[in-house]
Amino acid sequence: MSTFSELGLASKLVERLDQQGYETPTAVQEKAIPAFKKNNGDMIVQAQTGTGKTAAFGLPILEQGVSPNGSVRALILTPTRELALQVAKELGRLNIDPSLSIVSIVGGMDIGKQIQGLKRNATIVVGTPGRLIDHVKRKTLKLGDIQTSVLDEADEMLQQGFVEEIEDLLSHCPEKTRLLFFSATMPREVKRLAETYMDEPENIQIERTQGPMIDQIYFEVKARDKEEALCRLIDQADEMYAIIFCRTKLMVDELTERLRQRRYGVEALHGDLSQSQRNKVLNQFRQQRCKLLVATDAAARGIDVSQLTHVINFSFPQDDESYVHRIGRTGRAGKTGIAITLITPNEHYKWQRLQKTLKVTVKKHAIPSIDAVVKAKEQQAKAKIEAIIANEVEPEYQEMADTLMTEHDPKVVIAAMVKQLCRNAFDRKAYQKMADLFQQQSRGSREPSRRKPGFRGKRSGGYKGKFKPARKDRY
Predict the structure, then answer these.
(1) Among 157, 162, 231, 275, fewest CB within 10 Å belongs to which?
(2) Average pLDDT over residues 395-414
């Protein structure tokens, strides 16, 4: 493995990296930085989320310094406000030139302050396509001297339908502008855009590390049992810190409310939240004052949390790329994460097809029984008590313990304290019965259905039965 010095970066920049806690380059940094520095050609870099892509393109751009005429020399496009702000913040941490200005341009923020930032000779502009186009039309952002344009999470941007905005922005850049695409996946839309705007790009592909870093498992449950299954998994885990993905805003709100009714500390994140509400929720989540976040795919894009223990697909992912981006939010910074997917019997065909496309085999697990969940919670409580004992108990508490022990049966005293500490954590009535599909299906292996999803019953040559077919003109 190389060092940052061996990648050819300036010594002062290497010193800043050391100050910021960077030890050795990640795989994408090790390959992309030298490639960026050795020529001026276009590049396509395929690497999963959370692998250090920001530094991979950011460090060489920062090293180029301020433009001689004070104009914008680098444009970085991101699919979300959060990712743009995160990239701008990270570049600010790594910047060693006080005269080099980094400005974030995103929707939902004061446009007046953004204009002021651009007027102060911004060198690097990081933003979302919509707001960037707005500034170009206002002529507050001029792209005539852009040397490098970066599309960060290019697949996500195109999936969100930003292709026209991207093409509009690129049309305002000089023809000689260097293009860098960073993407976790390489769908047709990204390839098509590259073919249109890139000139013989260098392709860098970083092998996925999700095998050893992300433990992928799935559970098959009936749709009505999904919430119960989720609660058992949360309770069985020790200190779960997770994003729970739902397909729609309504599902996010409904699941969040039901989890709150069951006394879980949980917050919701979706597109209907104002920017101030969104910031409040994300701050609570990052500070782990709330350890469960229920979110839509779009709302969760750009969230940078390196300590997540779990990602849970409560709703089946929209497509293969969505699955990759979801699970890529755990297992970061060299730590192992767990990606859980809950599927219903009707989704079994899609799940098998997704695994085949991504060339992964995900192991099926059984939903823990009520007894297993309660046993796990008892072990967690015991571990917490033992940790308190190991750290020595203050004298005032020991004095109270002596008094209680002389007045009552010691076992009863301890039991009362455990009850106070754990509340109703061991109450089996808090859980509901659910169908055990794991046991039912383990009696015989089930082949994926060859029929299309949603088809039930035997194929028939014609209409038979009590009800007439619905008229097509009613739909």
Answers:
(1) 275
(2) 84
Instruction: Report the distance separating Cα 244 and Cα 265, nearest Å.
Output: 13
Q: What angle do CA 291, 226, 273 make, to 5 degrees?
A: 50
Intrachain domains 5-205 and 209-445 with the same fold: yes
Q: Helix H segments across 294-447?
A: 297-300, 320-327, 348-358, 370-390, 395-407, 410-422, 437-442
State the pLDDT confidence band at 169, using cuts at 50, 70 and 90. very high
Nearest alpha-carbon partner for 256 in 329, 297, 265, 242: 265
Query: Which tokens go with 373?
Result: 């969940």
Whose tokens are 């010095």? That residue is 5
pLDDT at 439: 62
- Give, in words, the CATH class of 5-205: alpha beta
Identify the residue whose tokens are 């250090």.
52
What is the pTM assigned to this prediction?
0.65
Secondary structure class of 396 (helix, strand, coil): helix
First-last CA distance in the chain: 62
Domain range summary for the chain, segments of one domain joined by +: 5-205, 209-445
Task: Kindly report, residue by residue over 279-296, the tens digit of the pLDDT.
Answer: 899 999 999 999 999 999
Pairing of strands 124-127, 266-269: unpaired
Q: Domain 209-445 is classified in which CATH homologous superfamily? A: P-loop containing nucleotide triphosphate hydrolases (3.40.50.300)
Q: Which two tokens stand for residue 9?
A: 């970066």
